[in-house]
Specification:
The protein is built from four helices and no strands. With 107 residues, the chain is mainly α. The protein has one domain. Helix 2 runs antiparallel to helix 3. The two termini are 30 Å apart.
Length: 107
Amino acid sequence: MAELIEHGQAVGVPPGSNSSTSPWTAAEREWARIRVEKKSKFRAGLVAYAVINAFLIGVWMVAGFGYFWPGWVLAGWAVLLVLDAWNVYGRRPLTDDDIDHELRNRR
């Protein structure tokens, strides 16, 4: 977020210069909207994981407690949730410094 504010100030756009009463620029609000949307989708994925896997475990129990086949679904889906969590909460946004560093390493 600080990078967005610094970038806006560097190009002459003071914070809060958008048409609303918000102190944030349009770019900052768009960045925040995307983050909130990603977090919301992740939470919905967690709920779906819990509900669907509880149902599958219930089916397994009704079927007689044989081989625990829902474990395959639990494990596979959990890996995808961990990757999604890393994407939502663990990754940092790219900065101009990252791009400059990559370009310097290209030589």
